[in-house]
Design brief:
By secondary structure, this protein is an alpha/beta fold. The protein has 13 helices and 19 strands. Helix content is about 35%, strand content about 15%. The radius of gyration is 29 Å and the shape is globular.
Length: about 450
């Protein structure tokens, strides 16, 4: 008999077989329950609906249901319909688990890269979603512009110009699903142009280096010294990836003459500077350092996200591109990778001022955490020097030479998830190795911050 599909609240795939319809349907339902395809508590279609969908008599379905109720496979109650019985699926006897040691989950999370997720502005975001959904034109729910919704690109262009000094034309702005996605799109476009090498900073994230190399580009580390990355010396690279406002993980800002030198190199050679502005809004000692892109919008690709300011789970990012690169990046994918409702909501969040209010409140909260960290270390671990604290969501704790591995092990013993600086060093980087911890102070919830600091101080030499 041909396969059939019956639907009422759920999709029910049945293939009745056997000498008669009633027996075939009974066997098919029993097998679906026995094998777990229909789980306990699942409501089945009414006998009238199932009979109509299968093209058989209603009494045949009712009789099959009655047989299975009598056997204990189904239950039938007035007002609640026919459901799969809780005891219908036989469970194999539990096998005793082999004794093994499971590593304990860290009690305190000091890994960098994540904001305080408990502070996500749920109520304000919900209000923005409702307003955005109510105001959205019908065509917003079509395939739309591959660069992203014009409402968001316009709102971002205004915001970035006002807050980060970016020269952002909405026509040159492409929405993406986070920094990694944007980096992949740009590197894929560069590789298609014939580029083969991307210069990166000696300290960064291996997931980004791996992503770049999967697009066909080779990564080579830039030299560095006490002033930070020597961005003016990219060798024969076709493009350079920098964190000029707040380097991750070392924490410094690219000094002015090296910012200018990097842009001069791009103009002179026809190369590109990829600017990762991942936490540019969080500056504590003075006004935020402006974006490098303002020095030459035709040779700098600006990449930003809402991952640090709001939450990484939103998967919202953006790129401001040189005009010649826009069609090539769009050809590799772009704004269609992000749900239209999220784009419209962020646009509303930006234009209503809710984003500014949230960032200001977050900046104050994170500064207080940073200050508490610095104060605790000055009292409890005076030999540990704290650097990279002028901005961002993490600090670098400089350790005595040769002690980083033992301190990381001690931190794990005290229930801390924390990385050493060596974790972020490019495999081909030259120069002296430094011992340090990279401490993300945004992640722990407020109620656990004091105990987290206590555990950290106990782990330090």
């Amino acid at each position: 008999m041909a396969e059939h599909r019956a639907t009422l609240g759920i999709d029910l795939h049945l293939a009745p077989t056997g000498p008669g319809l009633r027996r075939g349907l009974t066997d098919a339902l029993r097998e679906a329950v026995r094998t777990g395809r229909l789980t306990p508590g699942t409501r089945l279609p009414s006998s009238r609906s199932l009979a109509a969908d299968l093209g058989i008599a209603r009494n045949t379905v009712a009789d099959a249901y009655a047989d299975l109720v009598a056997e204990g496979w189904l239950t039938a109650r007035q007002g609640s319909g026919t459901r799969v019985a809780d005891r219908a699926v036989p469970r194999p006897p539990a096998r005793p688990a082999a004794p093994r040691r499971v590593p304990g989950r860290p009690r305190y999370d000091l890994l960098p890269g994540t904001p305080d997720l408990a502070s996500f502005p749920r109520a304000a975001w919900l209000k923005a979603t409702r307003r955005a959904l109510a105001a959205a034109p019908n065509d917003a729910f079509g395939y739309g512009d591959p660069r992203g919704r014009p409402e968001l690109r316009t709102a971002l262009a205004d915001y970035l110009a006002r807050v980060r000094g970016v020269r952002a034309d909405p026509e040159r702005l492409v929405v993406c699903s986070g920094f990694a996605h944007g980096l992949h799109l740009v590197c894929a476009a560069l590789h298609a142009r014939g580029a083969r090498t991307l210069a990166v900073e000696s300290y960064g994230l291996d997931i980004h280096w791996d992503l770049v190399e999967r697009t066909g580009l080779r990564t080579v580390p830039l030299p560095f010294d006490d002033l930070g990355t020597r961005a003016q010396s990219p060798g024969d690279a076709d493009a350079v990836l920098l964190n000029p406002a707040h380097q991750f993980p070392l924490g410094g800002a690219l000094v002015p003459d090296r910012r200018a030198a990097a842009v001069d190199w791009a103009r002179r050679t026809g190369g590109l500077v990829l600017e990762d502005d991942y936490d540019g809004e969080f500056r504590y000692d003075r006004q935020a350092v402006g974006a490098l892109q303002d020095l030459d919008p035709d040779h700098v690709v600006y990449l930003g996200t809402a991952s640090k300011s709001l939450a990484p789970g939103l998967r919202l990012g953006w790129m401001v591109l040189p005009p010649s690169l826009v069609p090539e990046v769009v050809a590799h994918g772009g704004g269609r990778s992000v749900g239209v409702l999220d784009q419209l909501t962020l646009a509303e969040f930006l234009t209503s001022g809710a984003y500014d209010r949230h960032v200001r409140a977050a900046r104050l909260r994170y500064r207080r955490r940073r200050d508490a960290l610095v104060e605790a270390l000055a009292t409890r671990a005076p030999d540990v020097r704290v650097t990279g604290i002028a901005a961002g969501l993490h600090a670098v704790l400089r350790l005595p030479p040769g002690t980083e591995p033992s301190v990381v092990r001690a931190a794990a013993w005290h229930g801390l998830a924390v990385h050493g600086l060596a974790r972020y060093r490019h495999p081909a980087a030259g120069g002296a190795r430094e011992d340090a911890l990279v401490v993300g102070y945004a992640t722990p919830p407020d109620h656990a911050w004091a105990s987290t600091l206590e555990a950290l101080c106990r782990a330090l030499p």
